[in-house]
Amino acid sequence: MPESAARQADFLVLGSGIAGLFFALRAAERGRVTIITKKRAAESATNYAQGGIAAVVSGDDSHESHVADTLGAGAGLCREDVVRFVVERGADAIDALLKVGVDFDRADDAPPGSSDFELGREGGHTKRRVLHHRDATGREIERALLSRVRAHPNIDLRENSLAVDLLTTDRAGAPGPNRVVGAYVFDALRGVVERHFARITFMATGGAGKVYLYTSNPDIASGDGMAMAYRAGATLANMEFMQFHPTCLYHPQAKSFLISEALRGEGGTLRTMSGHAFMADYHEMSDLAPRDIVARAIDTELKRSGDDSVVLDLTHLEPDFLRERFPTISARCLEFGIDLTTQPIPVVPAAHYCCGGVVTDTRGETDVLGLYAAGEVTCTGLHGANRLASNSLLEGVVFAQAASEAALERFDELPPPEDTVVEPWSEGDATESSEAVVITQNWDEIRRFMWNYVGIVRSDRRLARARRRIELLQGEITEYYWNSKLTPDLLELRNLALVAELVIHCAQQRKESRGLHYTLDHPDRDDARFGRDTLVRRSEWGPKTPPA
Ligand code: SIN
């Protein structure tokens, strides 16, 4: 691999979902921005978000109600100040998205340009407050933001580029506080690693659903940002809280296809294969209970019946309404031979959203100088132990906006880094791998034991088994990583393994059940001992995982 060049920008943005693109547009008003994205720019979790974005925009809703629903879902671990911070900025976030050209559905009789939005409802919400673009809200948001980004003269958008690690001054042994000054970036098409220096690095790399065998997430969701931030010395929190979406399409050929909760918001009913509408047995909100409760109820029913799936029944709803409001889901189901207007849809839970991640304050600042973050990669205090549906796109915009303001304030304090501060990438004695099977084997193994042992229902023994396995595989992966030439799969495997290890570690610390963490050995919530975040930091834990 040729020696890398050094590139300079004012802002380096990792990730091209809602938070990354939003931040980039704001930052580009002040300086040069480089966006690094793993595949095509639109290939982000945002692009697959079906439900929508929650915000208080109607007269019969209130901030208090949105705050209460968020706190209720979060099971005692949300930070109320952060929840208020986000909820109170909801309407402004919607305005900002409208200004970049996002088209949200409006009520049938609303005059053009009016703010009379058609609002959906999802689990855990006591009001209709989800703005949407039919059932493809994320795609619409991504379209609007990307078209602005592509047209901006100050933004360099680099596709097929994978950040390998953050550039840190402590890596180079420089005096003073550790500072992130950019990232090593692997250009997958040219096969080279370059140093991208920047005054400010903004991480919006999304989640880590691929750590689990079944997930609603696109293939890119391998936890890269969480792993890089951890290696760079940032604090992460609450990695045990992985949200399982209750309803993904169950079909042998349907990879990762979500059946939006908005369908239950319109009256869809979950039933066992024998027809029993079971959610009323579990919660007073029935099919619209918070997600952790619905996913666990499905898991219980599947274990009880031995069936492969439950079904979502929409056959009592108006067929034209369903086709019009949910065109993407209707069409996709039809591809698999399911007409959702006449047949119930087979569904199962799947890993969907990481409520934990890199800790930031309400300015999007991490505890490493120069590193900002927003979106699913972070843990801001909004979601607590369980995210309220459709709060994540909102969080992405609000925190990207806050981080851009904070970064612009800091701009002059953080001078452009000298390119001598971190060494060029060196691949040492790495050779072309003749054993790519190591990657597929480890990848499959991790995802399978995470699903079986660190899934919806956990126990001390299952977690200990997972721990033994990840430690064994980490040794193999680390050895392979340092001796093999880089490939995108290898980079992702290294990150995925570290994130799996962090999830197991955090889950083992929490000896209670709360929100998304349910364990048979400690089935009750214990506020006195565990009413706090689970923090994890490289300097304090992780001897099994050598720093890069
Ligand atoms: C959905 O449409 O059910 C997903 C929405 C979300 O995860 O917030």
Description:
- The structure is a single chain.
- The protein is 34% helix and 16% strand.
- With 548 residues, it is of the alpha/beta class.
- The chain has three domains: 7-240 and 355-413, FAD/NAD(P)-binding domain, CATH 3.50.50; 245-351, Succinate dehydrogenase/fumarate reductase flavoprotein, catalytic domain (Flavocytochrome C3, Chain A, domain 1, Alpha-Beta Complex), CATH 3.90.700; 437-536, Methane Monooxygenase Hydroxylase, Chain G, domain 1 (Up-down Bundle).
- Strands 1, 2, 6, 7, 8, 9 and 16 form a seven-stranded mixed beta sheet that branches.
- Helix 1 (18-27) runs parallel beside helix 12 (392-410), helix 13 runs antiparallel to helix 14 (460-483) and helix 13 (437-453) packs parallel to helix 15.
- It binds succinic acid.
- Succinic acid is lined by residues 50-51, 258, 260-262, 353, 389-390, 392.
- Succinic acid (SIN) is lined by residues 50-51, 258, 260-262, 353, 389-390, 392.
List the helices and strands and how they pair.
Blueprint: E1 6-14, H1 18-27, E2 33-36, H2 45-48, E3 53-54, H3 63-73, H4 80-88, H5 90-99, E4 119-120, E5 130-131, H6 137-151, E6 155-158, E7 161-168, E8 180-187, E9 192-203, H7 224-231, E10 236-237, E11 242-249, H8 262-265, E12 269-271, H9 291-305, E13 310-313, H10 319-325, H11 327-335, E14 345-354, E15 357-359, E16 371-373, E17 378-379, H12 392-410, H13 437-453, H14 460-483, H15 488-509, H16 527-530, E18 535-536
Parallel strand pairs: 1-2, 1-9, 2-6, 9-16, 15-17
Antiparallel strand pairs: 3-5, 4-5, 7-8, 8-9, 10-15, 10-18, 11-14, 12-13, 13-14
Helix pairs in contact: 1-6, 1-12, 3-4, 7-15, 13-14, 13-15, 14-15
The chain binds succinic acid.
